[in-house]
Amino acid sequence: MASLIAILDLKGKSLIQRCYRDDIPPSSIENFMPLILDMEDEGQHVTPCFSSEGVNYMHIRYSNLYVLALSRRNSNAAETVIFLHRFVQVLLMDEMIDFGVPQTTESKTLQEFITQESHQLMRDQVQPQPLNHLTTAVSWRPEGIRYRKNEVFLDVIESVNMLINAAGDVVRSEILGVIKMRCYLSGMPELRLGLNDKGLFRAGEKDDKPVPRGKAVEMEDTHFHQCVRLSRFENDRTILFIPPDGDFDLMTYRLSKVVKPLIWVEAEIEHHGESRVVYMVKVIAQFKRKSTANNVEIFIPVPEDADTPKFKAATGTVKYAPDRNGFVWKMRQLAGGKEFLMRAQFSLPSVKNEQDNSRCVPITVKYDIPYFTVSGVQVRYLKVVEKSGYQALPWVRYITQNGDDYSLRTAHEKGSPAVRQST
């Protein structure tokens, strides 16, 4: 697969590297960044895989680092890129790969023979051997696991990313979902999970079964843990798997559809001469009354030179955040269908700035709503089958929260159309 793996900074300097074969000199790493810059100068799209002078460069970017794999052979580029993503999560160079060939990337398995405790090897002791289940079909789960109480917990967590312009229109919305599991099951259980995926009901059309309206959800960019049998999912959309022990992410998905903002914020700015500014903020919970949003935080930007804050809120607490040039309205709980007002006043210097910097900073909202999914994804069933025949207790929980990638434009002054900001 790979002859050399290295971690580079943004300037292309190698921070750490490991050579698994001797067919590529380490000096080839120095050619990586010049090749990237040449492609950018020529207006080419920088692809994760490219070749130069007989060397294959395969890389991913993680934060401010490049993770690079080099090979001279006709390697499987897709496998290498997937391995680099797993490598970032585990970060073990010698334990995950041997002679350039991936061995195991499952963190649960690696934790069993890589610990934080040191052990002195005595002369009469036998050298530790690799775990037997590494070479089996279920390498992510060892045999012999036993629990007094067999339970499995499933969390469906959805994050909403949204872009709203200054007129209050939803320009872009996206739902990123993840299904997290925590398994405390004995033996080698087989789990069967059914979701209200639209593809499942489409498959039923062949049997003249109607598609329920308003209940099916069409997922995009689904990604499964390696324990899932993909062939079975392609056939009847059933998620069949033998789970790892403990915590893991079973599935991630995305839905790119316009959704109604769950928490709507209207902000109105009123200037009193050049020495005082007043903010009138209204928050509206636009979800069902039986649901409640927890830990709601609304950030409103203010000019950099604003001072002497005064706040009055119908509920929650408001605090000035001078380090962020704004103030934060916090509410421990916000019930569905409710709306509240908050008033903030700031003093300004006598000389008015030519540019109001607060207009460039967006309003942001943070929240989490338990027992609720904005996409409508639901767990239809979760069955646990094990040869010993024990009964397991499945627990399912739904959570919707704000996403990390969204921009909410700031408000206009009084007299202009009120600007509504939201998540």
From TrEMBL:
Keyword Lipoprotein: no
GO CC terms of this entry: clathrin adaptor complex; endomembrane system
Keyword Hydrolase in record: no
Gene3D superfamilies: 3.30.450.60, Mu homology domain, subdomain B
Keyword line: Membrane, Protein transport, Transport
Gene Ontology BP, a term: intracellular protein transport
Stretches assigned to the MHD domain: 149-409
Subcellular location: Endomembrane system
One Pfam short name: Adap_comp_sub
Highest rank taxon of the organism: Eukaryota
Entry similarity comment: Belongs to the adaptor complexes medium subunit family.
Protein name: Clathrin adaptor mu subunit
Taxonomic classification: Eukaryota, Fungi, Dikarya, Basidiomycota, Agaricomycotina
